[in-house]
Amino acid sequence: MKARVHVMLKNGVLDPQGAAVRHALGAMGFDMVTGVRQGKVIDLDLAEGASEADVTEMCEKLLANTVIESYSVEIL
Amino acid sequence: MRAAVVVFPGSNCDRDLAVAFEAAGVEVTMVWHKETGLPDGIDIVAIPGGFSYGDYLRCGAIAAKSPICRAVADHAGRGGYVFGVCNGFQVLTETGLLPGALLRNAGLKYVCRTVGLKVQTTGSDFTSGYSAAEVINIPIAHHDGNYFAAPDVLAELRDQDRIAFTYTDNPNGSQDDIAGVLSQNRRVLGMMPHPERAADAGHGGTDGVALFRALSGALETV
To answer: d(Cα A51, Cα B124) in Å, to the nearest integer?
Structure first.
């Protein structure tokens, strides 16, 4: 079983890296980009018997800092 | 008075912190992160600056889950003193001992220079050696020092007089210019600036000395 975790900064939390990428894209002529948010993707290989609830617990305890980040879990 | 300085792989201010404590008359024991308990009789645990675990995942995130950090949380739970500097502050927010989080600097650059800090409260054993609203000069050296907390948390910090220091000229985008915050019982302090790097005339400044002396004096009576 594999799971994919997406971690993003919450809306309202400043993302200076995303802003820098947006500026660079604008400077390259990609004027259509009005916003960029940068996040992380974490792929997990899981032993048989693992559940989505286990992955959610991992997100809450380590993979995301819920003060500033939101996450979503995808079972692949 | 005894202090434990926690050492993680990637800590680089651990010995500076030990020297500053020793200069203030505190006996120091270095404690490796894989230890599951603190030595007996420890009054304060100090979490040093550096790049614990290479800042992997998030600054301080992996360190916060290390065996020693469970013992540090227990120590704080018993009313023990804890002091986190720079990466140590990041570790303390990741453990939940202090509120908020430290984001990438708003200017995206690593900032390494001496900054002005305003002492926002003298009502703690860390800051009682300063006078109210005194401005001190302390070095910073960080890439992720941009303090963030939800509006209700910021209001609580203000209402409870738990903002220890603010920047006189915000170098990193921190909300409300916050450079350091206290726990509710005022015995846990986390701050991004490095008072241990302003603790000897050879450092080019000694404004950090009063913090270690005040702490040493307070620990004597604990």
So the answer is: 46
